[in-house]
């Protein structure tokens, strides 16, 4: 069930103060989630959440999470810059590498953050770019099928990430010979998983692999990083994962393998932490009746790409019509010249009139941040509904000036009035 914790009046007040579309984020909801997560893992010495910056890269949000004791998981130079500017450093930064420019390792090392290597070839790159630290993390890809119980969740072997088992052993030996003393082990095997068994299953794989690697290399296990992937109930039929229970189940697995004293645990949740605490607030601006019934919004896939990109379900409600019967069936669309620019397809909804305030739920992670400028559409503002009940614009909407900022305007600058 999506998050219905904010009453319609809050969205009405916000829309009276700021032009739509915008993403609205709920500070108190985000704080509550951070506290719940910290509580779930409070049994573990040195537990820390590293919020995945890419999910919602806004400094005001990152500062809230910092106040709640979270670190940041960064995967690019600009995310590192944001982290640095907010005063994250050292053990509060996880840098998850991929096929990125090698110089980004230098930046992560300069901030003294943890580096999470994605591939055995990264060892030589890190050696040249910042040097091998005493504690280094490696991302593991066990290949094969990833099962929770008997259910196959996916095939990690098809994913581009991580070291194979043999590479992990070889890589850790090499890191040891280059001066590393301790290692972290990371894996991300299933995305947006609402099954409470995901983390405990993953933890079992990582704990056992870490023990094996420690025995074979003589390195100490510094931490196990369970990464992101805990999902949220986008659909009303889905139940939210129970993070307190998940923490307790991970504790049992930990206890079986390490007893009372073992490595630290890290997580890198993005979606679970902020996803349900964001809404894309829009107005219905058009309706059209042809072979189907269409509602056109003032937002489009440039503001929230997940439905267009993955066919992802985002729940939609109409302000003031929460309890109205769902007796109309609409395709809810944006303005892009792409037929996949639909927030919903053949969705039962209450009757929608032009001017209605329409909420697209669960936009608080991988929402704004996946935005783009196709069709010359501009990205929207981000508004924070603060704990004191007031609203604050934490990112303004783009203007045409932003859209043109990177162009060589030589041929037409004066005509554009810039
Ligand atoms: C995207 C990502 C996350 C966060 O994933 P969620 O699904 O938002 O929890 C965490 N760690 C890494 C390395 C990622 O790439």
Question: Which features characterize this protein?
Answer:
418 residues, alpha/beta, 30% helix, binds pyridoxal-5'-phosphate
Rg, rounded, reads 23 Å
Class from secondary-structure proportions:
alpha/beta
Helix percent band: 25-40%
Q: Number of helical runs?
A: 13
Judging from the principal axes of the Cα atoms, what is the shape? globular
Main β-sheet description: 9 strands, mixed
Bound molecules: pyridoxal-5'-phosphate
Overall pLDDT confidence: 96
Low-confidence stretches: none
- Per DSSP E runs of 2 or more residues, the count of β-strands stands at 19
Terminal Cα separation, in Å?
A: 47 Å
Strand content: 15-25%
Overview of the molecule:
- The chain has helices at residues 8-17, 27-40, 59-67, 77-85, 103-110, 122-128, 165-177, 198-217, 243-258, 271-274, 306-310, 400-404, 413-416, and strands spanning 22-26, 48-52, 71-74, 93-96, 114-117, 135-139, 146-148, 151-154, 182-186, 220-225, 264-267, 278-289, 293-297, 316-318, 328-333, 342-349, 357-361, 381-385, 391-395.
- The mean pLDDT is 96.
- Strands 1, 12, 13, 14, 15, 16, 17, 18 and 19 form a nine-stranded mixed β-sheet that branches. It has an eight-stranded parallel beta barrel with strand order 2-3-4-5-6-9-10-11, surrounded by five helices.
- It contains 13 helices and 19 strands.
- By secondary structure, the chain is α/β, with parallel strands linked by helices.
- The longest helix has 20 residues, at 198-217.
- Pyridoxal-5'-phosphate binds at residues 52, 54-55, 73, 75, 96, 188, 191-192, 227-229, 268-272, 365.
């Amino acid at each position: 069930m999506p998050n219905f914790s904010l009453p319609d009046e809050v969205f009405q007040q916000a829309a009276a103060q700021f032009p739509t579309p915008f993403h609205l984020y709920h500070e108190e909801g985000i704080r509550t989630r951070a506290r719940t997560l910290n509580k779930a893992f409070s049994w573990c010495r040195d537990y820390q959440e590293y919020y995945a910056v890419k999910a919602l890269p806004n400094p005001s949000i990152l500062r809230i999470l910092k106040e709640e004791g979270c670190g940041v998981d960064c995967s690019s130079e600009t995310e590192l810059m944001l982290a640095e500017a907010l005063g994250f450093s050292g053990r509060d930064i996880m840098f998850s590498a991929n096929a990125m420019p090698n110089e980004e390792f230098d930046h992560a090392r300069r901030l003294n953050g943890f580096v999470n290597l994605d591939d055995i070839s990264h060892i030589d790159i890190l050696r040249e770019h910042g040097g091998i630290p005493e504690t280094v993390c490696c991302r593991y890809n066990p290949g094969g099928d990833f099962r929770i119980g008997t259910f196959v969740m996916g095939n990690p072997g098809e994913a581009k990430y991580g070291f194979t088992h043999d590479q992990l052993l070889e890589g850790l030996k090499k890191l040891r010979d280059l001066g590393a003393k301790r290692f972290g082990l990371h894996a991300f095997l299933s995305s947006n998983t609402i099954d409470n068994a995901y983390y405990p299953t993953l933890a079992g794989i990582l704990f056992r692999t870490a023990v094996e690697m420690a025995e074979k290399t003589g390195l100490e296990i510094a931490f196990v990083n369970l990464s992101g992937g805990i999902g949220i109930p986008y659909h009303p039929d889905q139940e939210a994962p129970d993070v307190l229970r998940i923490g307790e189940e991970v504790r049992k697995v930990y206890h079986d393998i390490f007893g009372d004293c073992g490595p630290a645990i890290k997580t890198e949740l993005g979606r679970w932490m902020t996803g349900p605490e964001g809404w894309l607030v829009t107005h219905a601006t058009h309706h059209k009746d042809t072979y189907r019934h269409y509602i056109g919004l003032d937002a489009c896939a440039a503001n929230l790409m997940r439905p267009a990109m993955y066919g992802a379900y985002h729940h939609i409600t109409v302000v003031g019509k929460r309890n109205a019967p769902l007796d109309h069936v609409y395709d809810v669309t944006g303005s892009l010249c792409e037929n996949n620019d639909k927030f919903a397809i053949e969705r039962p909804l209450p009757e929608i009139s032009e001017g209605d305030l329409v909420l697209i739920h669960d936009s608080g992670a991988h929402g704004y941040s996946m935005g783009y400028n196709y069709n010359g559409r501009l990205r929207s503002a981000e508004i924070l509904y603060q704990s004191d009940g007031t609203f604050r614009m934490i990112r303004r909407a783009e203007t045409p000036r932003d859209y043109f900022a990177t162009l060589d305007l030589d041929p037409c600058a004066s005509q554009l009035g810039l």
